[in-house]
Structures are given as C-alpha cells and as structure tokens.
Sequence to fold (325 residues):
Amino acid sequence: MNFHYHLLINRAAGSGNGQKVADKMLPIFDQYRATYSVYYSEYPGHDAELAEQLAKATLMPWTTENQETLTTFPLLVIVGGDGTLHQVLNTFYQLDLEFPVAYVPAGSGNDFARGIGLSRNTEQAVTNLLNTTEPQEINLLTYQEQVTDTKGVLVNNLGIGLDAAIVHATNHSATKERLNKYNLGSLSYILSILRVFFTQKGFPILVDVGGKTINFEKAFLCTTTNHPYFGGGVAIAPTAEAFKPTIDFVVVERINLFKIIWIVILLLQKKQLKSKNFHHFTTSKLRIVSTTPQFGQADGEDIAPQSFDLQFGTKNQSFWCQTKK
Fold:
C-alpha cells in the first residue's frame, strides 16, 4: 500500500524547534519521493482545528477493509511537542473518532517519545516512519473530571499539586524560551522546581485504587502517568509501561526538607521506592478526590486551581512508529 502523509507541523513547539525539525524532515520525505501535504499551526488552538478538519474530510481508520480496498492510505504525522500531540488526540477523542497517527517529537521535554522509546533524533525518527508499514498499539490514559464535567485522553500524565505548580511556573517563564534556544529546555523545569518547592503546601486527597480506599492527609505531589517520565526526563515511575493497559499513580507526602532532598537523590537514581514517603501504585482503575483547590496539569497543559474528582481508565491508540518496545 502507498501512503499520503499529512504533516501537521507546530513550528512554535519547543520555542521554535518545530520549525527546525520541519526543515530537517521535509528533505527526507523528498529524498524518499513520498507523497505529502503540509499544514502549519499558526496560533494557539490551531492544532486542534486542523486535526478536526482532517478528521472530517481526509483521515481514515486503519481497518482490514481499508487495507484491502485502498491503494493510498492518508496518514497523519504530528510534528510538535507533547502538547501538540495532546491537542490532536484529544480532538479525536472528543469527536469519538480513531485514526492511526505518526509522531515526530519537536518539543522541549519530549517525555512521550522517551517513554515509548521513539527516536528523538529527527532524521532517525522520519526514516523509521517512512519504513513502517503498519501501526502498533500503545496504551493511553483517559480521565473524567466530575467537578467541571470534563474528559480527555493523556499521552503522558495528569498531576495535581507540586508537579502542576511546576508546569504552571515553567509555562509562564521567559527562562524556558531562552533555554530552549540552546537545547536546555529540561533545565527550565529544574529552575521552576526551585521556585515552587518552598511554597507548595500539603493537601488532603482520597484515593480509590482498584476498590481500595486510601487517605493521604498531606499529599505534596500527586501524578497519574502512562509511562515512566515527566518534567523532561525525570523517571517518576520507573516501572510504568506504555504498552500495558495499566495506570501508574504516584503520591509523595509533604515532609521536612531533608527527607525531600533524600527522595530527590533517590529519584535521580531511580530508587525512590525505598522511601516510605513515596507511594507508587499500578492499577486498572483509579479515582482521586481533592477538595482543596490545587493547580493541575494534563500533559503539560495548565489547569487552573480547583477541586478535583478524577476517574481514570485506559484506551489503545495506533501509532505509526518503530520503538524500543
């Protein structure tokens, strides 16, 4: 089967890295004599608009019938950061439509690519894509938030508390843009941690993990994740796997400074489970209730401070990629 590649490119991703990735990848498509169309995202929210237009007019599901009858298959290639990928897949989720997608990472953190073993080298990622003939299934998380009656799909994680406050501080920091120019985007997360750490207070949460109810009186960091990484490469849940239909949930309690520093040291060594104040659960069903308003983040997208009543599930997404599965 032949393919027509529909390239949805967010040039602003990674503070302009999206344009640099596009400049590297388009000549490779030409070298392979691949058929493609280019759609540039021009403003915030345009990714979702382009995705909806393509979903309604161009894209097709990957079915046995289509494989047998089509001579050319329209394949969407998303070029941007984790936020771009989040917007596109959430557009499909809200429309209740499913299409296979390919992804070329061009953000500052690129945690999703790291989490599934997708090459973050543009030339390698594009070459792998053009040599792939069928998709593989990757597990994503779904969430339903009862307080605001919203739902969505996650490629990385959803957090409330410290990590969300860090994401908010990072997303609103001029430092992030400057560091991205030197490929040091992950350092902006570290600087944000130093700014937010001493102001984030502990807050109560109620957690239902697979039918077992647990109360945490002073949660500090509360993250539900699809794979090991967040914050530009920090392995918050080292044993999480994006190829299994499971939900990984991490809670760190608010403790004194020296114990937190010890957890950070363990975290850098991927040995955080040795701390009794670090809690990690793997489950197929999860509910989190927080009545104290907190910052939230979904795949690095800000959620304004609010109370939360979250229920999580899983779903498969077909990705057109060669990974280190």
